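Re-run with default settings, no changes from the original entry. Doing this only to confirm the output is reproducible before filing.
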Amino acid sequence: MIGAAQSAAAARKFRVTRTVRDLHEVRHARGLHHTHKFWSFKVQVYQFYHSKPVQYGVAGLILANFVVECIQRQVDPHAEKHKHVWNAFEDFFCAAFLIELIINMYGSWMKPFFRISWNYFDMFVVAIGILILVRCPLPGALRLVLMLRSFRVFRLFGRIESLKKIVHSITLSLPGMFNAFVIMLLVVCIYAVLAVDLYSQYFVMINPGDPNNPDITSRGDKYSEEYYGTFLRSLFTLFQI
């Protein structure tokens, strides 16, 4: 319990320290650009954008966009019945996310903005939204890029602190999960080697030429050879099991 409390305190201290550091850099950047009135409200915009009401509002906007996408796929999968309605929703969300990104970039420019990896994903999503807004005709397979707008919902992980913790925990667990996967793979490989020795000729041995028990599969191989004839076949069979 004490260790968990200390970890939580350290995490809160890290977030506060990072926020203070970012705000200090924003103020310093505004000082460097004090001769230009364009950056006069840099600090105020930064504090406004990172306030809890705005962050929760952006999260609600992302969730609403995802709900509309789900409803559209249910009632009008090919956007044939109410195409103008879905286009209006799409344009609204694309414009809203573009404005949100501009506000974020203005308030956090430059190091605080590019220090957060989620902002790169936001720029990618907004770039797709711009293609939708301008009705850019994409040739051939490039049209599939527009399908990536469904991944906007992943932006929630960068807005809600509890979801950030889950993603961070999963990231920290990857090395241990990889080690467990390697051990599991080695064990399965051992059994795959044994299966080739034990079962590659098993069906032939128990049913030698029995016409009532054909040992040929629809693909033209013997059952034992198809499933356990080689190491890779045996490994795939065990994977399916």
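Residues 1-14 have pLDDT under 50 and may be disordered. The longest helix spans residues 161-199.
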